[in-house]
Amino acid sequence: MNSWDKKFGELAIIKLIRQKFPKRRKEILKGIGDDAMVFRNGIVVSTDSFFEKIHFDLNYFSMSTLGYHCMAASLSDLAAMGASPLCALVSLHLTKNIDIKKIGELYSGFEKITKKYRMDIAGGDVVTSPSFAMTITVIGHTKNPLMRSGAKPGQALFVTNFLGLAEVGRRVLKMNFPKKEYPEAIHKHLFPEPRIFPVQSIKKFATSCIDTSDGLSTDANHLGEESRVKIVIDAEHIPIHPEVGRFCSIKNIEPLQFILSSGEDFELLFTAYKLPKNKRTKIFRIGRIMKGRGLYISVRGKIRRIKPTGYEHIV
Amino acid sequence: MNSWDKKFGELAIIKLIRQKFPKRRKEILKGIGDDAMVFRNGIVVSTDSFFEKIHFDLNYFSMSTLGYHCMAASLSDLAAMGASPLCALVSLHLTKNIDIKKIGELYSGFEKITKKYRMDIAGGDVVTSPSFAMTITVIGHTKNPLMRSGAKPGQALFVTNFLGLAEVGRRVLKMNFPKKEYPEAIHKHLFPEPRIFPVQSIKKFATSCIDTSDGLSTDANHLGEESRVKIVIDAEHIPIHPEVGRFCSIKNIEPLQFILSSGEDFELLFTAYKLPKNKRTKIFRIGRIMKGRGLYISVRGKIRRIKPTGYEHIV
Hints:
Two copies of one chain form a homodimer. Chain A is of the alpha+beta class. Chain A is built from ten helices and 13 strands.
């Protein structure tokens, strides 16, 4: 973090775009400000960029794993909208040291995950670049998109699965921690699974949704901002995965603080009045929606306002 | 050019993708291998990346001009498909020295061109990067897309406008040539105009189409490959713009060779049986389609095969 990114992060640019670009096309149901854009005909589009050293580290990512990882992260935006994937366009930014064999391996990673979700690779381009990177555009469809803006007072806040695991995995790999004690965390960082299938049942009762890509506080804040509501996270309800607990204990970090600011789990953070009894997915109730604005946390009965401290993509 | 890019350029990667990724989705009419991908519901999508020092030079591009230029280049792929633009998603890769003022200027450039074509900026993302770059995904629509694959023997090859102008403009700016002698070339490099409006009348009689982004020989070769035909370019029919003529004469370059390998004019190269009488756009007939394969050039009555020598995006 430096003064540069504090002055204008992603949010400042979103604001700038909203000011400069009025909505002109009736064909577009939702533009800037959600996980993906949505056409009235049900087509959903999202784009994400991944840079070596910023988003991934080739010291422990094989090219095949990298392909899987980046496509999964991209697809998570479709999951957050309740959309099913159709295809992806991959723009590769290659440095001179990446040969056709490595590119083949990268596409093997794409192949594994696109097969699982029955998608096409339908386009893209290739350019030389001073740094290895890729931009993935994913396209999906849904008749009834799940927006960030549907949360209402009286509803509760839920999350699929544990949070913080991916960041533990990343740090364990980065810092050369004993790997065998963090199998789930490492797997979660390398092979995150977009919640493409679970969201199809979740969207039957969810009223708003976002994926946890930037950390619980940032993501919950986005949800609150777009829905114009106050969100209270109940600290005691946030589940701590044993590997997250172990890591935080060794590193002397408060697990709650760690989870608030750890991204890339690609779980779904959503609101609903209540859960159905026969839900198929692991879901935790971690907060509530109230009238007002801002992000709050309730710890041992005391509610205080918190800043969205999570990882913004500009760091 | 080095051994690296000869071994695998864009074409090698397209081949790799075609082998690895079967077409799975019936919703997709056209995937890899055209200027853009096309859904059966008429949505057309294309993605392009632009890097400082590779695709643009900030020594003579203002941020606003850059915004116009990159969006125009991206939209040219929609024009080549006969599609009308709906919106764009912009993924910005920012270096630390680019402040919010500069970003505002960049978006002013986007604003000018998106207004002209009545488009939205509907999404994107922002990341820090070791090099300034952007990936633009443009989305348009058309009921009847114009493919690269429709050329048939007996048809003729046409191009809208002069070729080579943009490359002259680029070199004049780069080499600090006297600017006042190359006004059209310079304007063409800085502010190329995607043929969004003209294509709507051209598509009534055109059978195949590509935009001239990589140089006449490369682009004509793509058209021939996708249509599985032989293309003969008639050297004497290629129009030489006075500024291209002047530049080539001073630099002692053969104008024909220059035009064959100079890209980024973003004109339309298309095939048709014949032109209608009351056409509105400047169109030159520069070649013919024959049975067979390969790219040929006819010079003073002699026909010889040529290699696609144009600028491939990997250089």
